[in-house]
Amino acid sequence: MLEWLGLPQAASAHAAELDFMIVITHWLMLVLFVGWGIFFIYTLARFRKGSSPVASYHGTKGGWSKWVEGGVLLAEIVLLAAFSIPAWSARVDAFPTPQESVVVRVVAEQFSWNIHYPGADGKFGRTDINLVSSENPLGLDRQDQDAKDDIATINQLNLPVNKPTIIHLSSKDVIHSLGLNQMRVKQDAIPGVVQNLWFTPTETGAWEINCSQLCGLGHYRMRGFYTIQTQEDFDAAMQDQESFNAWELANVD
User: Fold this and answer.
1) 20 to 30 A Cα–Cα from 151, which one of 28, 91, 114, 121?
2) Is 157 left (phi over 0), alpha (psi -120 to 50) or beta?
3) pLDDT in tens, 159-193
4) What is the pTM of this model?
């Protein structure tokens, strides 16, 4: 069924649960589509001009339609109460602690994704809007002690497999939408608001970051990439990026 729906690879701990709800919803929509189609064909035949030459302004009466409507309503209540609300509640209640997770800031702008890691000390450095430039899109204050080891990248998100990830998502300009399809993650990035979301990757691989909200003329090219790696590969990638940042800072006039 998942192949028929064209869903991308499921690569996070909560993906299977969401996919199951998507399948159930599509089955319900299929039943409604077929049912209403049959009813439409029946009414075309039953109330054709030949069988009903004189119009009736009272309409037909019967109780079966109420039972059908009640069944649809019951199915929707079950879908919400038995699947959707418990899944949402579990995600909220099970929000991991920063100590057990990889914590990263993702700041969207037209038309790129700015990625900010806190570095080895686990603390995000100070940012200042007055420091924002093409070379420093986050406005990171490298004079701040907590910012000296921070890692900043553009359009490249690296995460370790089988470890919770917490993303603090925001936007510098207009509304964007972070789409990590294989993680089954989609969240709007709203100016002035920090949205906190989390997931646990379960498969390694490299995929695209999509913007799922029309954000301007360059929306089509707002593409980033995210890579799920083993812990060893992730640590190595962070060390390489930290070394590059240190070299870059040392060579800035």
Assistant:
1) 91
2) beta
3) 999 999 999 999 999 999 999 999 999 999 999 99
4) 0.81
